[in-house]
Known about the structure:
Blueprint: H1 2-43, H2 48-71, H3 87-123, H4 136-165, H5 171-181
Protein name: TRAP transporter small permease protein
Function: Part of the tripartite ATP-independent periplasmic (TRAP) transport system.
Pfam families: DctQ
Amino acid sequence: MKAFLALSRAIGLLNELVGKSVAWLILASILISATNAVTRKAFNLSSNAWLEAQWYLFSAAFLLGSAWTLMSNEHVRVDLVYSRLGRRAQIVVDIIGTVLFLLPFCVVVVWMSWPVFLAKLASGETSNNTGGLILWPAWMLIPVGYTLLGLQGISELIKRIAWLRGDLPDPVVQADAAAAEL
């Protein structure tokens, strides 16, 4: 179990580094948006590339930051039944949800998006908008983001199994405490 916990920590460190890095993309997107709005209103200048850069940055923040969100226990959850369960039952629900839904979904998305990304990369396809950007970086975000999310799902699975075995403190309490420190 120690090797699995070491793997879980490594995945967590990777996703924390990526998540904290891409969080800055929101600021970059805001600055681009504000600059684009000012230049459009003040100087009657605008660029489709700047508009597309905004959605590239938001997409990167969302897709690459989703694993960090999962690790921090900040993802959306329907708590109608879950909140009424005991802690052990909640952990079992998390394990079942990860194994039956999260991990298979991540595998399918990566499997299906990878060939599309490769096709966009090979063709050098650009946006249909005048002055638009190349498309492959945006398409690359999908398999990379879902790979990171799948890895974090494996990490969360390891932590929950370790908790059930008594090898680790409650992973959700740890994630909530870490999020409170930010």
